[in-house]
Amino acid sequence: MNQMTNAPAAAGGSPGREHAPVEFYFDFSSPYGFLAAQKIGAIALRHRRAVDWTPILLGVIFKKTGSQPLTEIPLKGEYAKRDFERSARFHGLPRFRLPSRFPVPTQVPARLITWLKDASPGLVPAATLALYRAYFEDDIDISVPEHALAAAAGAGVDRAEAQAAIESAQVKDALRAAVDRAIARGVFGSPFIIVEGEPFWGLDRLEHVERWLEKGGF
Amino acid sequence: MNQMTNAPAAAGGSPGREHAPVEFYFDFSSPYGFLAAQKIGAIALRHRRAVDWTPILLGVIFKKTGSQPLTEIPLKGEYAKRDFERSARFHGLPRFRLPSRFPVPTQVPARLITWLKDASPGLVPAATLALYRAYFEDDIDISVPEHALAAAAGAGVDRAEAQAAIESAQVKDALRAAVDRAIARGVFGSPFIIVEGEPFWGLDRLEHVERWLEKGGF
Q1: A46, A93, B17, B213: which has the fewest C-beta neighbours closer than 10 Å?
Q2: Tens digits of per-residue pLDDT, A190-215?
């Protein structure tokens, strides 16, 4: 990312050359993360930005912030379930369904994408969306390695390589380091978006992100 | 409110006659509540609805939900302060300032409005906004009775009557009962809006509220 930031402005104006990528942090068990993941690519593209997709582990982050999964909080939990589906309809994404097992640990899909960012970055957006859709549209438990690998394979990821990757100590360490870096940048929820240092939390801040990209701040 | 709901449809279509009022719940120490309070009247009016303004006490509600003030949560707190001001600018309300003392207990202004809803309902919107503006624009600590009374008096509320009201056991009980009713209706934050049983939490759900009013659900 620093390389891109420091690169000289490209003549052709291809996405992400003039400016730092839009940093997009998400947990694979986050409904609002899923909905935002389907929007962020188009938003960035409209403003000629690349997206830096970073899976995080809310479980680790919640320990630091003393938070808990939204659906487990009294009163708020019931509301949240209703709001997930209403937000999906509001954003024109009605295929969203709350999975039968929710939330799930997300180390497996997060490791897969952490590895893929290094191994084959061009596949990251499609693989991320394939994993998210398996979980939030087709009710497939992507915390199970078999299921995560199948979803990613559907997006063109090499299954054997991915399997080795999610079991590798190196990738586990890389994910842990990525989560620590995210926390150090102030990330505490999902989705979380950073545009040149400015933090935006939540699906409902995409409008702020869009205006920020358009005007360079407001 | 039930009376209005059950009333026959009025011929003239004046606000709030055909449908139940938009229920608007807010805490006087809630920045997003303040911003939403400046929007909800116009939204309701566009859809020929009245607003039922109900001050609540987040301190009481947070005890039930195990929540704490946003600004006191690690990481989230720093973000929230930034987001308050950015949200104010985004919504064209740049006079917002985080008060020097924040949050404050809100029994005093909440009792005042609870009493006013009964004593002089026509003054409720202006008095609510006057109290909110004193706190979030002019940095006046409205938890102090003198300051709350002065702000309300500026909106046409009788000062002596208001003073007697905020000290009265009956008004204290009425506020307690209103908070209990709000909790029973699922209210857990501020602002909280209910349109014919459909709950909406947060400034960022005003768009959902507007679409809901327009289409009768979505």
Answers
A1: A46
A2: 999 999 999 999 999 999 999 999 99
* CA distance to A34, B64, B97, B142, B164, per residue, from B145 (Å): 47, 27, 21, 7, 11
Rg of chain B over Cα atoms, rounded to whole angstroms, equals 17
Instruction: Give dist(CA B160, CA B149) in Å, integer.
Output: 9
CB B198 within 8 A of CB B67: no
Per-residue pLDDT at A17? 53
Buried/exposed B94-109: b ≥16 CB within 10 Å, e otherwise: eebbbbeebbbebbbb
Q: How far is A65 from chain B (nearest CA, A)?
A: 5
Q: Which amino acid is at B63?
A: K
* Paired tokens of B15: 């606000």
Which fold would CATH assign to domain B54-187?
Glutaredoxin (3.40.30)
Q: Choose among A74, A199, A207: nearest Cβ to B64.
A: A74
Domain boundary assignment for chain B: 54-187
Which ipTM value was assigned to this complex? 0.87
8 A C-beta contact, residue A136 and residue A96: yes
Residue B8 is predicted with a pLDDT of 36
pLDDT band at A15 (very low <50, low <70, confident <90, very high): low
Q: What is the pLDDT of residue A1?
A: 37
- Is B75 close to A183, i.e. CB distance below 8 A? yes
Q: Roughly how many angstroms between the first and final C-alpha of chain B, as a whole number?
A: 24
Backbone angles phi, psi at A85, to 5 degrees: -70, -40
The nearest CA of chain B is from the CA of A182 a distance in Å of 11
Helices (H), chain A: 2-6, 31-46, 58-65, 76-90, 107-119, 124-136, 145-154, 159-167, 169-184, 206-215
Interchain CB distance below 8 Å, B79 and A201: yes
Contact B86 A199 (CB under 8 A): no
B187 min Cα distance to partner chain A (Å):
8
